Amino acid sequence: MDLRHLLPLLLVLLASGSVAGADPAALWSARVQPLLDRHCVKCHGPIDAHGGLELDTPAAVLAGGDSGAVVVAGQPDSSPLALNLLAGAESHMPPDKQLTDDEQAIVRAWIDALGDSPADPVPSPTGHTVETRAFATVTEAIDVLMAEAWARRGVEPAAPVDDASWCRRVWLDLAGRIPTEAEQRDFLEAPSDTRRAALVDRLLDSDDHAVRMRELWDVFLMGRGKRESREERRRNSGWWAYLEKSFRTNRPWDTIVREILVARPAGADDQGSPWFLYERRNDHQAIAEAVAPLVYGARIDCAQCHDHPLAREIKQGHYWGLVAAFNRGKNVDGATDVAESAVGGFVNFTNLKKESQPAVVTLLNGSTVAEHRPEDGSPEADSDEKYLDPAAQPRVPKFSRREAFAAAATTGNPLLARAFVNRLWAVLLGRGIVAPVDEMTTRNQPSHPELLDWLSADFAAHHHDIRREIRGIVLSRVYALGNASASAVGSDPAAFASAAERPLTAEQIARSWSIAAGREPGNDPLRRAAVAAIPDVMPREYQATFQQAQFLSAAPALKELLEPVPESTVARIAALQAPPERVEAAFRAVLGRAPEPEELTQAEQVLASRPEQPAEAARDLVWALLTSAEFLTQP
Amino acid sequence: MKRPAPPLSPGDCPRDEHRLHRRLFLEGLSAAGVGGFSGLFHNPVLAAETKRAEKHCILLWLCGAPSQFETWDPKPGRPGGGPFGSTPTNVPGLHFSALMPHCASIADKLNIVRSMKTAQSEHLQAINLLQRGNPDRAGFTRPTLGSALSHAVGELDSPIPNFVFLDPIPGGNEFESFKAGNWAGWLGVEHAPVRLGGDYTQLLDAAPDALGRHDRETRETLRKFLTSRFERERNSSIARSQNAAFERMRGLAASAELFDVERLSPRDRERYGPGSFAQHALMARHLVEHGAPFVMVANGMNWDNHVFQHEIHQMLVPELDRVLFHLVRDLEERGLLDSTLVIAMGEFGRTPWLNAARGRDHYPNAWSLMMTGCGLRRGVVVGATDADGVDVVGQPIDEQNLFATIFTALGLDPHAGYDLPGLPTFHLVENGKAPISDLLA
């Protein structure tokens, strides 16, 4: 939850004091839990419980510690939890810090609120019943459950965007580019009751879509390559081709994950699948850290040195178990293959208390992969008979840890579907149902738990069909919402009551610029320059860098794009006579809409500044439109 | 108005304990946010007026790693000593490589650390280590030296960026990856370097071209109008961030002449030498004269001579020698050496033996660097290596000792904590590591 947006709620609650209406569950989630997490849980939580006291859940707080209860419901002045925070308290907490008056007030408000409704201290954001309901389609499920959620929160969703904007949005999301003016016109002229589904189906089937999906998932799985040579290798190894083929043939997601974890391609087309492991250059910890968000939806990097300090279900054993699943692997020189030994890879790990344990291939759901462990730590001898075909290059062990892990992670692991659905939702809606997207822990509540549960179960039950899922989301009402009006500032983004801001990726920008400028597609120098200047895909915090401003201002590839060659937008506009005509043509070509009156005035001034050089003036106008925030953001 | 140095939080103990929660970390990030300095300065910066930043640092980043045997710690006559021999300096008993006669004549103004011993032998990790001054902690990106100094001693609303990075080479193998990475870490993009040099300066439109300033202004006015309108209508933080980035650029464009090599004095340019590295070192001096707090000069990753070590070092070292000679003397002449820290280093050293290709490979086990200027004594040699340079004799110095020395020399408390809400407690230098006391003035 975003704290800033809940401040108005909190102020109202605090002002109402202990009069009925203060909800301890809401207070806990919004203010108390983050406060305790930050200042107290290190010593009073899953890793350490000083004085037998844990403070990471309401139940734990209420259970108290070795010296008894720390909270008396409704009476902060009798509650050690509040009293010990006071300056000069005898058993002052935290030991080396003093919480501010405001911070202490939060704790007191919560204890107060407990006095009013002690029965439900555990946060239950939606109060929904647990049984799963039946819906005919993904879209129906989303529409119904979102509507219920809006009603429960008492929010009014924004009005939907107009058809032209919807069309542009879908083209960008599914095909990775804006539609041409003709394509937009075709959509608007098609029969209105069928055109949306028809467009979605057509785009999902296109090659552009496969490329778009590869662009996204290459970055999600591998990170943005920081060097030109890395991009070359991802292409040359067949990794990009593998991903594109997978998306083009709508390969089920669980199959894709299994293939990249096992890294033993069956056919020539899939030669690139080992690249997921291969690029990590035998750094087994890096592999483990990349696999966790994929199969669990959660980063477990912190579990390298100790159990997760907040999410109790993530233990150090899971981290090292994941490392063990892959540490028999070794890159083959000169080929994109990852060999695997039949022996070895038995490691121990130590926690902060220096206690040592053996790493066992363990999954988050508790299941472990059974394997023979050599006694007394002596190394097991390798031999040909441990391999399926000893002469094969590379040879495959009869028992393959990573195959065993991949099988366990892709069957009977509901987190696999949940992680994918959540990420897909985040791509299309600008924010996951669990946010941040790679923190699906028990600590991080989904904003719409019933919806996420339903979507995940449904995705898994329908062969992890990616295309079906995208279609379901994109045809929903929430996807089509417009933006919040300026007056709706302060509404909680987790409510999805309006469209979230989504910056375009560099590839979307480059392709869309070519179209808007009326130039040939496939301009690779432009794409490369854009990727170098604007590398982020779905950044958590959008920050336009100096490099980005430099790129937009003066990149040679962009300057070239604006040359008034025949048929280009700039040339076309320059050839028109009346300034208003030119401005209108420019807006339509670039932003897909007509200019507002004050925009028209400003734009005409730009044209008027160089009356004797219409091409240069047109170029300036088009430049300003191409680099405007509107163009660079998803509509 | 000067930014305060990061305050020491009472009771902070530099133990290896932390609370990790990504959400809190991110909240910390959003609090830091995009401030950005507003480019309200339209007057060109005048040398006499602006010495706003009181302390400065010039880092000559010799990426790829120079050989200590061909620079500061020669071993003439030893099997791996190489062909160049040594030269006496104007400090009795101290010798440099014979490739450095100029620096030898001002050795009493320099300080050499010969006992560097660090743990990373691969470029990407070592560059990361020597740029950030502390080992990585998973999940957090520590700011680089330039970003940390931009934050600690830089000026708000300065027309000169607080962190200038001059490197004309887009590539540089692992250095290229580093350059594309996150320099400013938890301090946020306003402390990221402004990259200039070579084609990067052209992106500033500093050089006059067919597009006059008037026209650039016109189209930028329209872009800004459209984006501001969008920002208002949608309460768009994307638009806000974009406008802030453009403002930074405009602010920079106002002092564009400072980044134009052609505008440097021809005599100075001739003295320093013709290569990019030399010209940018001169530009660094010039920027410091105009108040720049931190300038880093690099030339791709050109020092990594696994092959043709002697041939290439024979070209690179004399250039470095000449550049340092003029840079240090110029700063001293202008009364700036006592307020400017000058560091020349790579990310490790090179092997005391030659490989099969008659080159030297990576060697973090015992290596050298040069640092002088602000807050330091002069003419000191810290530590020593054995007869062949295989190991450090006596107390080794690591990257944390080095950074503690740098911060102390610039008047900062190296063990001060960063004040960033929501993050675990981080200090400029962790583990209470001490500066090199022999060097401190």
Describe the structure.
The complex is a heterodimer of chains A (635) and B (441). Chain A has 635 residues and is mostly helical. Helices cover 48% and strands 2% of the residues of chain A. Chain A has a two-stranded antiparallel ribbon. A two-stranded antiparallel ribbon of chain A has the order 3-4. Chain A is globular, with a radius of gyration of 28 Å. With 441 residues, chain B is α/β, with parallel strands linked by helices. Chain B is 32% helix and 12% strand. In chain B, the strands form 4 sheets. An 8-stranded mixed beta sheet of chain B has the order 6-5-7-1-8-11-4-12, with helices on both faces. Chain B is globular, with a radius of gyration of 22 Å. The model of chain B is unreliable at 1-52 and 206-211 (pLDDT under 50). At the A-B interface, helix 2, helix 23, helix 27 and helix 28 of A face helix 1, helix 7 and helix 8 of B.
Please describe the structure with a list of short key phrases separated by commas or semicolons.
heterodimer, A: 635 residues, mainly alpha, two-stranded antiparallel sheet, B: 441 residues, alpha/beta, two-stranded antiparallel ribbon, 12 helices, 14 strands, disordered N terminus
